[in-house]
Design goal:
single chain; 318 residues; alpha/beta; 8-stranded mixed beta sheet; 9 helices; binds NADP nicotinamide-adenine-dinucleotide phosphate
């Protein structure tokens, strides 16, 4: 694999698992800055490379990881697919449904994998939620609420940059949207949305959205990048409620707890520690080798982009 960009998320989360994964050999680390590439290569292996095109031009690179700012992910993913590389792209791949559809089609036409790294989908705690729902433990599903908010980042962070498509919707808003898609299915409509614009940067620093399924189940979503930390979702049924308090960022050594309330009783169901970043890599490799299905690829990429686009359109942020 090769890497396009020496990003913070690459350093902290993805390169440790890519470098250690038995199915992956890291051969090239690309950066606009030679010293950064050298530091990454020293820690994780591979050759430091100047520029992203040089990585894409290497015949010994079969796949690339793309942890670029949101404004650049779609373009470099397209270039990588055109160079016949499999792509593991950081979220968000794009906020345009048309572009998502084109990229998905391009990947299919080239016979290459295209994953968008909503890594939380690989954690088994969400399968436990599915099982509880399927067993009727909360009765009929009536509503969903989800929230991902994080404290403010330093002033030079990409999330404050409008030209790089920073902001709360691209930074964290995709997670509650993806949660609605994961549990309520495709065909969701954005019926309300608000994005708060920072008066200095013009970037959205927080927001909320109201979605509904075709048969009238609502989803209330919140997100923000200057807020107290929260990453949780809740499903309310006709008879009970399921709460997932550490929905998006459970550390690899964290025993996840899913709460079930029904008829005044409260159960805490635990899920053993799981490294969701490592699972993404395993799923990516399995998809490349045998076409194994994954929630990180396929039609969900287009549905996700359609929701992001819908929130922007309804919120009418200039
Ligand atoms: N899945 C997750 O859990 C997760 C978590 C955090 C972030 N993310 C996503 O990962 C991406 C990177 O986030 P991050 O927080 O790691 O950001 P970051 O540290 O700022 O990394 C972005 C990288 O993009 C490259 N880049 C290319 N052109 C740039 C430009 N004009 N300005 C700034 N950087 C540029 C830089 O690499 P070089 O200088 O080496 O070229 C930079 O290191 C974002 O799209 C974000 O949404 C995902």
């Amino acid at each position: 694999m090769g890497v396009l960009g020496c990003a913070d998320i690459a350093w902290r989360r993805m390169l440790p698992v890519l470098a250690a994964h038995p199915a992956v050999e890291l051969v090239a680390v690309g950066s606009r800055d030679g010293a950064k590439a050298a530091a990454f290569a020293e820690r994780f292996g591979g050759e430091p490379v100047a520029g992203y095109d040089t990585v894409l031009g290497r015949p010994d690179v079969d796949a690339v990881y793309v942890p670029l700012p949101p404004a650049l992910t779609a373009d470099w993913t397209r270039r990588a697919l055109q160079a016949d590389k499999h792509v593991l792209c950081e979220k968000p791949l794009t906020g345009s449904a048309r572009q998502a559809s084109e990229l998905r089609d391009l990947a299919r036409a080239r016979g290459r994998a295209l994953f968008e790294n909503y890594m939380f989908l690989c954690h088994p705690q969400h399968q436990l939620v599915d099982d509880l729902l399927a067993a009727g433990r909360i009765g009929r599903l009536r509503s969903l609420s989800a929230e991902f908010t994080i404290p403010a980042k330093p002033a030079d962070d990409i999330r404050h940059r409008r030209d790089l498509d920073g902001g709360a919707l691209t930074g964290v808003g995709g997670y509650p949207l993806r949660t609605a898609l994961r549990h309520l299915g495709p065909g969701l409509e954005v019926v309300g949305a608000f994005l708060r614009a920072d008066p200095h940067t013009g970037v959205d620093t927080g927001g909320a959205a109201l979605l509904r399924t075709p048969d009238g189940v609502p989803a209330q979503l919140g997100f923000g990048v200057e807020h107290a930390y929260s990453c949780r979702y809740e499903l309310t049924g006709s008879l009970g409620r399921i709460t997932v308090p550490r929905a998006y960022t459970p550390p690899a050594d964290h025993t996840a707890v899913v709460h079930l309330e029904r008829g005044g009783a409260h159960e805490e169901l635990t899920v053993p520690p799981h490294d969701q970043f490592r699972s993404v890599v395993t799923a990516f490799v399995a998809h490349i080798r045998s076409g194994a299905p994954s929630p990180l690829t396929g039609g969900a990429l287009v549905e996700q982009a359609r929701l992001v686009e819908g929130v922007r359109a309804v919120a009418r942020l200039p």
